[in-house]
Amino acid sequence: MLAAFTFNTAENLPVGLLELISESLRVSLSAVGLLVTGYGVTVAVASVPLAHFVRVVPRRHVLTGLLAALVLSSLGAALSTSYWLLLVARLLTALAQALFWAVMGPVAVGLFEVRGRVVGALSVAGSLALVLGVPVGTWLGRRSDWQVPVATLAALGLVSLVTIAVLLPTSRPEEEPAAYGTSPDVRRFATVLVAGTLSATGAFSGYTYMVKFLGDVSGFSPSTVGALFVAFGVACLFGVSVTGALLDRFPQSALTTAVATQAVGMLGLYSAGTDPVAAVVFLVLMGGALGPVFMATQNAMLHCAPGRTDIALAANSGSYNAGMAAGAALGGLILPLADVRDTFLAGGLLTVGACAVLLGERLQRYAMESAK
Question: Which of 160, 169, 170 is nearest to 57 (CA)?
């Protein structure tokens, strides 16, 4: 959980330190923004190839190597004196994270009997990065230097590294309890992959421009927008906590419900976002669904993976990150041509498409079972 928290904080921390890094390294804000975009694209491209490359290496060795990469890249980022050195350090962290979620899921689940609750615990740790890690890191950076919170991530990664290196058992990957899905299903695997990608693309086409939306459309002041982002993160944390407790009992319904809730939140912001009260309500709905969508897709992969679960989880993480990058790009294309509200309309419609994919698969399965 600490490793999940550290990786997610490392991924999102530049958002809070954007201006500080820009001033320190004397580069534009858009160049610093590429530190986040490049990170996501790297995870999307590298997840499956890396998971395949290390498929026979014991998981304890893989995880200690990934955490060592996190520690070294965080120290390298903190010591960077130029933009390009920082970019290289960020890409090394991204390569480590590309493999982390694929490996950590089956390892953690294999240590316990309940898969959904373990996935939920890891997702809570990841969500805490948005609620606690990024805000605290931003606060620390503004009261010292941006390098301080980045170096702190190296310390947290080192604690995780030592703990896993000392305590995690060594076993062959294919012999671990969660190495294969409980109910392999190629059709379900493809459905979850498509729905998750559509949902991520929809979510980030709007979320990327949330600050502009809340200021220009809903009329909130900059200080209030900051508080609303905290509320968004708290809603995300609440959503993954509740969904995690229900994943083992309702694995398919949990994913459909989360995607549908995201659609309602985004379309609600588009249609009623000019009213401040309605904007807060639909913002919380969207936040409460964002984390559970990814968590539920990860849990689904542990059940329906047609082969090894680590490869399936890598494919899911890669496609989700590809959706995040595509969503941000889509919103960027819409913004100059229309109102910022339209980014939420596009995102909401894409999320409705994800709902249709999930419901279509369930109806098709029901029809096939009835025919028998």
Answer: 170
The encoded tokens of residue 257 equal: 């419900």
Most confident of 106-110, 251-255, 294-298: 294-298
pLDDT of residue 58: 82
On the question of pLDDT at 175 being above 70, the answer is: no
Helix (H) or strand (E) holding 371, with range, is helix 341-371
**CA 16, 346, 344, 287 torsion-angle sign:** negative
- d(CA 246, CA 254) in angstroms, rounded, equals 7
Please, which pLDDT band fits residue 372 given cuts at 50, 70 and 90?
Answer: low
Burial label for 203, CB within 10 Å (0-12, 13-18, 19+), is: buried
Neighbours of 37 (CB within 10 A): 15
pTM of the model: 0.81
269 vs 275: CA distance, rounded Å: 9
Residues 257 and 263 sit within 8 Å (Cβ to Cβ): no
Q: Residue 52: which H helix or E strand, with range?
A: helix 29-53
Phi-psi label, residue 339: left if phi above 0, alpha if psi -120 to 50, beta otherwise: beta
Residue with tokens 């989360």: 258
Residue 244 to residue 152: CA distance in whole angstroms: 29
Rounded to an integer, what distance in angstroms lies between the CA atom of residue 253 and that of residue 132? 29
DSSP string, 233-279: HHHHHHHHHHHHHHTTT-HHHHHHHHHHHHHHHHHHHHHHTTSHHHH
Rg, C-alpha atoms of the chain: 20
- Give 3-state DSSP helix, strand, coil % of the chain, rounded to 5: 85, 0, 15
Angstrom distance (rounded) from CA 266 to CA 247:
24
